[in-house]
UniProtKB/TrEMBL annotation, chain A:
Cross-referenced PANTHER family: FOIE GRAS, TRAFFICKING PROTEIN PARTICLE COMPLEX SUBUNIT 11
All residue ranges annotated as the Trafficking protein particle complex subunit 11 C-terminal domain in the record: 1038-1095
InterPro entries xrefs: TPC11 (IPR021773), TRAPPC11_C (IPR025876)
Protein name: Trafficking protein particle complex subunit 11
Gene field: TRAPPC11
UniProt record similarity statement: Belongs to the TRAPPC11 family.
Function: Involved in endoplasmic reticulum to Golgi apparatus trafficking at a very early stage.
Keyword annotations from UniProtKB, A to Z: ER-Golgi transport, Golgi apparatus, Transport
Subcellular location: Golgi apparatus, cis-Golgi network
Record's keyword annotation contains Transport: yes
Entry keyword Transport: yes
GO biological process: vesicle-mediated transport
TrEMBL record, chain B:
Keyword Cytoplasm assigned: no
Organism lineage string: Eukaryota, Metazoa, Chordata, Craniata, Vertebrata
Localization terms from the record: Cytoplasm, Perinuclear region
Domain of life the protein comes from: Eukaryota
Descriptive protein name: Trafficking protein particle complex subunit 2-like protein
GO-annotated cellular components: perinuclear region of cytoplasm
Membrane-spanning segments: none
Record Pfam families: Sedlin_N
Family membership noted in the UniProt record: Belongs to the TRAPP small subunits family. Sedlin subfamily.
Listed SUPFAM superfamilies: SNARE-like
InterPro entries noted in UniProt: Longin-like_dom_sf, Sedlin, TRAPPC2L
Species, as recorded: Acipenser oxyrinchus oxyrinchus
Length: 1133, 107
């Protein structure tokens, strides 16, 4: 876009830098000069001094300096700031002119060169007559200079040159073009910078010195001008702190100026400039709050300074620009690292700028079109002789005029008219939209979604005003859903209204209908008469007629739209529209529900579709259809009534297809589900409602799923909370809020009419063939075909259970790993009505625990539903929990021949193995037999016949067996030796004959075997009698390979007298035994302790008689002395 | 979700503009809501009007928009207006015949 009157001049917006002119450089033909220039220009980063360089020819004419005023006494200023001033000091009047000259110290023709150089300097000086611009000379030399003071010729010639050129030594420089060019250049430019600083300082002082000549009455403008200049020179000097101070003073001075209609624009303009500078510097000094405060102050001061009422749009334009430039400054500062927040970001300024741009447009519309008959004034009052203004913010037709009244009212009128005409050419909408989109970008960045939406609405509306309806619709469409989901109905309605206008003016039938659907619906806050008008238009469109234009539309646009609509009407085809409404809030609501969440396949599926409208007038539809995930059902759920397009408003013959506002209408559908769909879901995928007719124009309103739109879920929630009493309704009417959507239903199999019973005797015993009887009885009225039984462990249980459970139908064989845990699909054939079948099952459970068994019976049966023959598959499941327990516990112990507990056995000495079988089964157990399978390390003393054969154990009873065993010598008996296995064969007493016997194998414990050196056993009768001799023989056996010295003694006892060796020492040879004979003579009756035998082995001191006592009897029963029986009495008896 | 429970403007001209102002003011808040203070103060600056916010413990927001030129209304007055509003709102909520989240009607 070309710069407009309101854009800030670029010289104001740039950062002022010292201006240094370089002369004497031949950029075209001299490579060295080119290289020097490049070194000055290239890489001017922030660390280099801020200078703007320019190459000028040596004889360049600098702007002439006007003769300095010595007195301001009679001077009346014509304006505040000349338009050329800033540019002059930035780009035209240098602070320093540098003369480059190629000259080495050892130059042969020194004299000539010196004077040539002096001439060049002189030319520059002459051109700068009257200015304080500094001049410096740079000698370009081929040789590297010697350190200062060493080269005598150099210092001498330097002094001579300075003298010839009238230069101070500080202004003469040497530039050897060697390898270190950039380094030299940087040193040079630092020196230049110092000179420039001095120059600007002098200029600043000079301007300051004017102040004493000024007086407050006539020179008010000069106060501002001078203060601005001082500030600007400070900026050129890079003294931004002081610059800011001076600008602030200048700003205050501007507002002290006497303002009136003729100079208002100039004052505002200047105030705007200074404000811009202040804000810019504040951001630069990282004091954004100061910038904002200054800007607010500026706006507050200037807001009401409208100036000429006929040019009010100018004020708005200026205000807009103020906000925009501040927004730009703010944004720039953010790009340089400033952080902004949600409530304080550039977006607000752009937004305000847009607001003023809108105001400008409105005012322009009011002011610039009042009289179209008057032509543009001639000569053009806006033309100036110079092509531009002398002072910022003045009127071209009366430049320099500073008094309150215009010099020529006629000219003034012409000027205003010209400006008003010019304003007509401004593309306001474009400006507004650009500003709005700037603001949108900012608010997006600072997470203000609603502000963003609001601005987008404004953009859309602006596009609408600019007649770019496509873009307008795009924007409005984009934000509409935000307002819809947030349920700001008033705002949504307003947006929809604009959108409807756009679609009308574009002749977009589908959009037109879509927006209308929502505008006549419940979310719209339009008045009833407005809704009625829109609804009538919709009906017109459906009858393929042109709708009436929307109100408040531009008349020419309406005309264009009407012809568009006429074309649409005459155009055949493309008259069907599908509008998906679940994201809108259309005037007709829909809820579809299956009556139940599931249906048995032999019962027809029932479905209700409820419709309700919120529009002002009743409306007819021509078709209602429901779509399902299985499209085969679609055909059953259609209501259709072809109607003439003219009948659209008339109540239908059936009264069925007409929707009365706010009345809920119910449509009932019924169909038979397919038997293949058993176990599947039937889902409503869409409900379609057709308005209009297929031969006219028709609109298909489509709800995805089972109805509901953008607002319905919230409404449903509110309805459930509501305390309001439901209105009393007649029989056929339904309260809308009570209807809830049920979008899917399950087809489930027919209820089985069959009984399945399981007979069994729990619990199961480990490893037995557990007998279960399944009895199935048909209660069907017809033959049940294809009856199948699946039985066994219910799937989905612990894997261990599956691996240890076996099921079979054959009870006569033990089942093993090859049998499955579940027997599937055992065919049973057909069952006549009432027939009963029994099936035996055997289950073997290898481990204890609870198992769930499943019995599943399936069959097929023919039935009739709604006059339709179908084959229904039915099934019935029965489950039963069965616990498996251990049938009995077996305890095994080793005892000595005296039934004393043994923790170890002795080689070759007989001992007893006892088994205890304790029944844990609640049912009687039949122990078929038992068997002892001895390990090689054990030997039986006598036969090992089972002693529990055919014993029946009731619950809690136990059976015992006892086997006499010896243990032959073993190598390492201390670690224990295996004893063997004990096998019990058993079955349930109640089990059938052919059921196999279960063998339970018990591993007998290991036992520690020890050898003993000496073994003693006694031979004595089983009882004694008082005063009758009791012979006792002790056998003492040496079991070692050594000769044993044995010391033996018998302790006396009160109950006995005895004869025999009381104490003896004897020697027993290896492997032999010694017998000791005693005669005991019992003295008392009853259990009596025998005289105890003590044995000591001299060679085995550790051997104690304690050990031996285990083998020897300690007591004996002594019977009392029998009465002397009289033989006679016997005889008598 | 932030939708209007009750909205009213006096005068009724330019009502839409104020509705937008209230709606956009709902953007502001994340940084405010964490505070214990219920009165949120000036939410955002505009040229023509000032937007004040207030939030209850149950996160119901009140927004008052006043004319910028109305300098009589200081923070104190606005704050007490909010308190009155809050009390009225509490009264509405105490009404057993009012369903939470329904639009509020005022006589």
């Amino acid at each position: 876009m070309s710069p407009t009157q309101w854009d800030l001049p670029p010289e104001l917006c740039c950062r002022p830098m010292a201006f240094v002119a370089l002369t004497g450089l031949d950029m075209v033909y001299n490579a060295i000069h080119r290289a020097i220039w490049d070194a000055f220009c290239a890489n001017r980063r922030a660390d280099r001094v801020p200078i703007s360089f320019k190459v000028l020819p040596g004889d360049h004419e600098y702007p002439k300096c006007r003769t300095k005023r010595t007195s301001y006494e009679w001077y009346i200023p014509k304006g505040i700031l000349k338009t050329g001033w800033m540019n002059k000091h930035l780009n035209l009047v240098p602070a320093l002119v540098v003369v480059f000259y190629e000259l080495d110290w050892d130059e042969a023709q020194w004299k000539e060169k010196q004077s040539e150089c002096a001439t060049k300097v002189e030319i520059v000086r002459t051109s700068l007559q009257g200015r304080n611009t500094k001049v410096a000379v740079v000698l370009i030399q081929k040789k590297t200079p010697l350190p200062p003071g060493e080269d005598l010729i150099a210092s001498e010639r330097a002094a001579a040159l300075c003298n010839a050129c009238d230069l101070s030594g500080k202004s003469l420089f040497v530039l050897p073009h060697t390898d270190h060019l950039v380094g030299y250049i940087i040193r040079l430019e630092n020196a230049f910078y110092e000179h420039a600083q001095t120059y600007y300082y002098t200029e600043l002082r000079r301007v300051k010195s004017h102040k004493e000549f000024l007086n407050k009455t006539t020179h008010q403008l000069l106060f501002v001008r001078h203060q601005f200049k001082i500030a600007f020179f400070s900026e050129l000097k890079q003294d931004t702190q002081n610059a800011l101070k001076y600008y602030r003073t200048a700003y205050n001075l501007v507002h002290e100026l006497r303002a009136h209609e003729t100079n208002m624009l100039e004052i505002k303009n200047m105030a705007g400039f200074i404000n811009y500078k202040i804000c810019r510097l504040c951001f630069q000094h990282n004091t954004p709050l100061d910038a904002i405060a200054q800007f607010r102050k500026h706006i507050d001061l200037c807001k009401k300074k409208i100036g000429s009422a006929e040019l009010a749009f100018e004020h708005a334009a200026w205000m807009s620009k103020q906000f925009q430039s501040f927004g730009d400054l703010f944004d720039e500062a953010i790009k340089l690292g400033l952080t902004a927040i949600q409530t304080q970001n550039p977006g607000f300024y752009y937004q305000q700028a847009a607001y003023y741009a809108q105001e400008r447009k409105q005012q322009a519309n009011q002011l610039c079109y009042h009289d179209l008959s008057i032509n543009y004034p001639n000569p053009d009052p806006l033309e100036t002789a110079a092509g531009s203004l002398d002072f910022y913010g003045q009127r071209p037709w009366r430049q320099g005029h500073q008094s309150i009244d215009p010099p020529d009212p006629e000219k003034e009128k012409g000027g205003i008219l010209a400006l008003q005409r010019k304003e007509r050419d401004v593309l306001h909408s474009e400006l507004i939209i650009a500003l709005l989109s700037n603001a949108v970008a900012q608010f997006k960045k600072y997470k203000c979604p609603r502000m963003k939406s609001h601005l987008m609405v404004q953009m859309g509306e602006e596009y609408y005003h600019a007649k770019d309806y496509t873009k307008a619709l795009k924007l409005l469409d984009y934000v509409m859903c935000d307002y819809r989901t947030e349920r700001w109905w008033t705002l949504l309605t307003s947006i929809l209204t604009t959108a409807l206008k756009c679609s009308y003016l574009m002749g977009q039938v589908k959009d037109y209908i879509t927006y209308s659907l929502e505008l006549i619906g419940r979310a719209s806050t339009l008045r009833e008469d407005q809704k009625s008008r829109i609804e009538k238009n919709v009906i017109k469109v459906l009858m393929n007629e042109c709708p009436d234009p929307e109100p408040d539309c531009d008349s020419s646009a309406v005309k264009a739209a009407q012809s568009l609509w006429t074309d649409r009407v005459s155009l055949a085809g493309s008259n069907d529209f599908t509008i998906e409404v679940q994201d809108y809030i259309p005037f007709v609501q829909c809820k579809a529900k299956f009556l139940y969440p599931s249906f048995h396949v032999d019962i027809p599926v029932q479905l209700h579709v409820y419709l309700k409208t919120d529009c002002p007038h009743p409306i007819r539809f021509s078709k209602l259809c429901v779509s399902f995930n299985n499209q085969e059902y679609n055909q059953y759920c259609v209501v259709e009534e072809p109607c003439q397009s003219t009948h659209i408003l008339e109540p239908s013959a059936q009264g069925n297809m007409c929707l009365v506002p706010r009345k809920t209408r119910k449509y009932t559908f019924k169909f038979v589900a397919r038997t293949e769909d058993v176990g599947k879901k039937i889902e409503i995928t869409a409900v379609d409602l057709m308005l209009g007719s297929e031969n006219g124009r028709c609109v298909l309103i489509n709800w995805r799923g089972a109805g509901g739109d953008a607002a319905s879920s919230q409404e449903a929630l509110q309805a459930t909370r509501s305390f309001k009493r439901r209105p009393r309704l007649t029989e056929n009417e339904v309260d809308w809020d009570t209807v809830s959507i049920q979008a899917n239903t399950m087809v489930i199999s027919r209820v089985p009419r069959i009984s399945v019973q399981i007979h069994h005797e729990p619990p199961a015993l480990t490893n037995e063939m557990y007998w279960m009887v399944v009895s199935i009885q048909s209660q069907e009225d017809t033959v049940a075909k294809d009856v199948k039984l699946t039985a066994g462990l219910k799937p989905g249980q612990d894997a261990n259970l599956t691996q240890t459970t076996y099921v079979t139908l054959n009870g006569s064989e033990m089942c093993d790993d090859s049998h499955p845990a579940l027997l599937p699909d055992i065919s049973i054939g057909e069952l006549q009505p009432g027939q009963k079948v029994e099936k035996s099952l055997y289950v073997r459970c290898g481990t204890t625990g609870t198992r769930i068994f499943l019995v599943h019976v399936s069959y097929a049966v023919d039935t009739t539903v709604e006059d339709k023959e179908i084959v229904c598959k039915c099934h019935k499941d029965e489950t039963v929990n069965i616990e498996t327990i251990v049938p009995f516990d077996v305890a095994v112990k080793f005892v000595s021949s005296k039934f004393e507990h043994l923790d170890r056995v002795y080689v070759d000495i007989p001992f007893l193995l006892m088994t205890d079988i304790l029944s844990a089964s609640p049912w009687p157990l039949n122990l078929v037999s038992s068997e002892l399978q001895l390990a090689p390390s054990m030997a039986a003393v006598d036969q090992l016949d089972s002693q529990v054969e055919q014993v029946v154990l009731q619950t809690g009873e136990s059976a015992s067996e006892c086997f006499c065993l010896t243990c032959p010598p073993v190598a390492s008996g201390a670690n224990g030796v295996a004893s063997g296995l004990y096998v019990l064969s058993w079955k349930r007493k109640s089990s059938r004959e052919n059921v196999p016997v279960v063998s339970t194998v018990i591993t007998l414990p290991h036992v520690v075997v020890e050898t003993i050196p000496l073994y003693v056993h006694a031979d004595l009768p089983s009882f004694g009698r008082v005063r009758e001799s009791l012979p006792v023989k002790y056998h003492i056996q040496n079991r070692t390979g050594l000769v044993q010295d044995v010391e033996m003694s018998v302790e006396p006892s009160d109950a006995f007298m005895f004869s025999g060796l009381k104490q003896v020492r004897l020697r027993i040879l290896p492997g032999t035994k010694q017998e000791m004979l005693y005669n005991f003579y019992p003295l008392m009756a009853g259990y009596q302790n025998l005289p105890s035998l003590t044995i000591n082995l001299l060679r085995f001191p550790g051997f104690t008689s304690q050990l031996l006592r285990r083998f020897l009897p300690t007591r004996i029963f002594v019977k009392p002395q029998g009465r002397q029986v009289d033989d006679a009495s016997i005889a008598a008896a | 979700q932030k939708y209007p429970l009750y909205i009213r403007s006096i005068p009724t001209e330019n009502e839409l503009k104020f509705h937008y102002a209230v709606h956009t003011s709902l953007d502001v808040g994340k940084e405010f809501v964490d505070q214990r203070e219920r009165y949120l103060g000036l939410l955002y600056p505009t040229e023509d009007y000032k937007v004040y916010g207030y939030v209850t413990n149950s996160r119901v927001k009140f927004v008052i928009v006043v004319d910028s030129s109305n300098t009589e209304l200081q923070d104190n007055e606005i704050c007490s207006m909010f308190r009155k509003l809050h009390n009225s709102y509490t009264d509405v909520m105490c009404n057993p015949f009012y369903n939470p989240d329904d639009p509020i009607h005022s006589k």
